[in-house]
């Protein structure tokens, strides 16, 4: 058995203080047939006013697309979960609506473990997974578990502003990892850490990255670069937190509108699909220093508030202690209904769903990029077609803006002028500077600013209209 | 309009640091018909694989008891929530399974607000409520919002060990409020705070209390005493956090088995029921210094992971900022299904349910107490019939234990001997010392120890058997 390294040295003061409940020693008698257990404040399931829940869902293989409505027996998966005597593999309501199972329900954990084994290949043995109420909470729990106020953490130079806010309010400080079109540049991060000034405090304890379909840049870190980054983590001894909500929004390569659609290499079979996925950090994690945050939010629905953390068992145990005294566990309805669906779809049906999702996002991404090509002048802008995620970015050369000198050569003034003009024209994309990490040594804004758009949230006709209006605004601003 | 006082001085360093997301300024354009909004990473509801969920629940007025199974149209409430075009008052799945609504969904908040107005009478106007994922999380969020590491908080001398653990791991310290059969003794708490030694740090910032059906003691604070405690809070200027999961497990008065059952004063009508409820702290809160933690866990089911906080709006806003970067919001399935049920039951149907619950718990409590009278010798023990909650306690005089002197007059050794003996006899009740608050100046254990049992978690025949075996163990221990 290959064991993960001991990283208990990374635990925060708060995490070190956590102790299991003294009542745990009594709860081992809970199911003992010889003991009448009068120890726990559990309400009787007889008083749960839900005898059965039923969900109506589309059925694999989703031949008409994942957005085709289920109409009859042939294309409907009926998820009927009973209070008692639930189907094998289901989480009965008597269980899911009761206290307990902080780690998540056994049946759901088993499905997720099977799924993880299909997709990743974790190099050590003592890994596991626990459920959470979504990656925002997983990230909050991660910071509570590994960071003390005043600590530095590494984040991408531009990143998800909510993730920054979680950390900032906990009094953490940021090191911004320089990026290019392929995400974090390993050599530059190595350089920063090699030249770390101890006067700033201890070296960063973790790297937070959205490696696939990054928010906001839309970039994805290629496999080779992930391996280089992992070596940087080993050299400077920090944890890697890979926040991967967009992992299954990986797409087929972009082929321009004038290319022959039929010749696109499309991942169709389960084998092709799995092979086309980028290598995750946890798949190259020989040490057990990667904490993977996974979620159903972009794959099924955000409101299920159901995510999971994959990591070494010893570190997961500290999360469980935290969850016992905070969220307790994810919603029983969410667990029963999601597991009910996955239980009926099976691993293969779930892959069918993910393949369908890939198809949808590929189509939307292609549509968005084609629309940018058509509407946003290339003389002053550039873009990189994303290979994953919900976001595209368009970069602008500020020096070519007519008011560049009048604006005192301030790139943020150009950015704001474009943002305001786009609003006037009836389109909203988010200025890139809004996602800038407030690192102590952040370099000044360069000559290129960017805007983040999404092709995920609107139908194609609206997407076309939005980008067209944005292009009009840019032309007005640049006098083109 | 009567406004709550400004208690922003009570905010923790962490809570003061929280800022709204910069993206908020863009999101005001989200529903603007003139703007194509390409700003947010929201997946299309077309890709949520849930077209409809249906729950089968009992229907008011629950004439055959709340545990009677729904069998046909006459006694079944069918909660059918659609993805789109949901019934009026329902939370559609397109909304509940999407991002957003950190405070909770409008329809559910409206029901809860109506319910709160029926039950409580809050003396100021700018109060509100937000949903949480249950009181354990509400309590964690409360500590993050009002306490800095090293701060003291006041808790009952014996209290819920998980609530202590939440605070302990955040490096908080405890002041144990002395209790008698009616809960916290206001004069004693006043005395402790009046004699507060500033060398210990600043005076406590909040009181955490489970005023009704307290865990573990089963005590409930009478209305007059709540008013006295509120004055102590005003005098020493601290917040009161009332954790009230058992509020609707208030029961009719205990009448001994030999009393005439028929003469019990039973709360049957909605009016009688509401009138019989104890006055909450928030109903006497002229200042806006009470934070009320409410929950469906004991009323519907723990696994819905759905609670709510009632407090002044200005303080709730700080919780919302925390939730945005941690839990986000409660599960959409939980919100759609619980609101779907409440929407169909209506306020009156919900009161019917609560009256039914009161009836069940009254029956169980009476049964448990009658069984104690029968099985546990009164020569060495006493009990106080609880008027609310899930728990009963039996106190023992340790000085009468045959090995008292042999045990070095250590009450904990007597306690442990009874616990172990009860296990041998096949019954488990929890030793009271396990709930003792680890306060710095905690008095030593006195001559009376207690055990906590519950009448909530087992059917009546098991309850009888468990108490009978516990009584056997006690008789063996005491040589009776």
From TrEMBL, chains A, B:
Give UniProt keywords alphabetically. Aminotransferase, Cytoplasm, Pyridoxal phosphate, Transferase
Q: What cofactor requirement does the entry state?
A: pyridoxal 5'-phosphate
The record's annotation in Pfam families points to:
Aminotran_1_2
Task: Give the EC number(s) listed in the UniProt record.
Answer: 2.6.1.57
For whether the record's keyword set contains Cell membrane, the answer is: no
* A single GO molecular function term of this UniProt record: pyridoxal phosphate binding
**Subcellular location field:** Cytoplasm
One example of a Gene Ontology biological process annotation: tyrosine biosynthetic process
Gene Ontology cellular component terms for the protein in this record: cytoplasm
Which chemical reaction does it catalyze?
A: an aromatic L-alpha-amino acid + 2-oxoglutarate = an aromatic oxo-acid + L-glutamate
Q: What is its main location?
A: cytoplasm
- Gene3D superfamilies annotated for this entry? Type I PLP-dependent aspartate aminotransferase-like (Major domain)
The record places domain Aminotransferase class I/classII large at: 72-468
Q: Provide the protein name.
A: aromatic-amino-acid transaminase
Organism of origin is Kuraishia capsulata CBS 1993
Taxonomic classification: Eukaryota, Fungi, Dikarya, Ascomycota, Saccharomycotina
């Amino acid at each position: 058995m290959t064991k993960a390294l001991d990283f208990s040295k990374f635990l925060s003061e708060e995490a070190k203080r956590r102790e299991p409940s003294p009542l745990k020693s009594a709860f081992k008698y809970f199911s003992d047939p010889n003991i009448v257990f009068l120890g726990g404040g559990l309400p009787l399931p007889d008083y749960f006013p839900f005898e059965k829940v039923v969900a109506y869902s589309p059925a694999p293989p989703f031949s008409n697309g994942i957005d085709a409505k289920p109409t009859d027996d042939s294309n409907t998966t009926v998820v009927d979960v009973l209070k008692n005597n639930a189907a094998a593999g289901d989480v009965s309501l008597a269980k899911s609506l009761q206290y307990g199972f902080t780690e998540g329900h056994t049946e759901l954990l088993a499905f997720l473990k099977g799924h993880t084994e299909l997709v990743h290949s974790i190099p050590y043995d003592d890994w596991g997974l626990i459920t959470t109420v979504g990656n925002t909470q997983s990230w909050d729990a991660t910071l509570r578990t590994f960071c003390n106020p005043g600590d530095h953490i590494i984040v991408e130079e531009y990143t998800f502003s909510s993730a920054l806010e979680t950390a900032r309010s906990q009094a953490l400080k940021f090191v911004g990892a320089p990026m290019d079109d392929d995400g974090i540049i390993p050599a530059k991060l190595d350089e920063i850490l090699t030249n770390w000034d101890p006067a700033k405090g201890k070296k960063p304890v973790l790297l937070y990255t959205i490696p696939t379909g990054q928010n906001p840049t839309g970039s994805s870190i290629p496999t080779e670069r992930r391996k280089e980054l992992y070596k940087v983590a080993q050299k400077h001894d920090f944890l890697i937190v890979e926040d991967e909500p967009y992992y299954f929004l990986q797409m087929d390569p972009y082929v321009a509108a004038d290319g022959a659609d039929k010749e696109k290499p499309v991942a169709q079979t389960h084998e092709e699909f799995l092979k086309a996925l980028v290598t995750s950090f946890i798949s190259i994690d020989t040490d057990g220093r990667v904490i993977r945050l996974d979620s159903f939010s972009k794959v099924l629905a955000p409101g299920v508030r159901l995510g999971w953390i994959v990591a070494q068992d010893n570190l997961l145990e500290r999360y469980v202690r935290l969850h016992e005294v905070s969220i307790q566990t994810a919603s029983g309805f969410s667990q029963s209904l999601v597991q009910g669906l996955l239980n009926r779809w099976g691993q293969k049906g779930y892959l069918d769903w993910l393949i369908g999702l890939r198809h949808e996002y590929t189509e939307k991404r292609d549509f968005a990029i084609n629309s940018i090509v058509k509407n946003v002048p290339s003389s002053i802008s550039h873009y990189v077609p994303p290979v994953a995620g919900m976001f595209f970015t368009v970069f602008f050369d500020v020096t070519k803006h007519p008011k560049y000198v009048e604006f005192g050569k301030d790139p943020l003034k150009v950015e704001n002028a474009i943002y305001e003009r786009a609003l006037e024209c009836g389109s909203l994309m988010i200025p890139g500077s809004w996602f800038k990490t407030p690192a102590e040594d952040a370099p000044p804004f360069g000559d290129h600013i960017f805007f983040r758009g999404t092709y995920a949230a609107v139908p194609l006709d609206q997407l076309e209209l939005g980008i067209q209006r944005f292009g009009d605004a840019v032309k007005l601003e640049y006098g083109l």
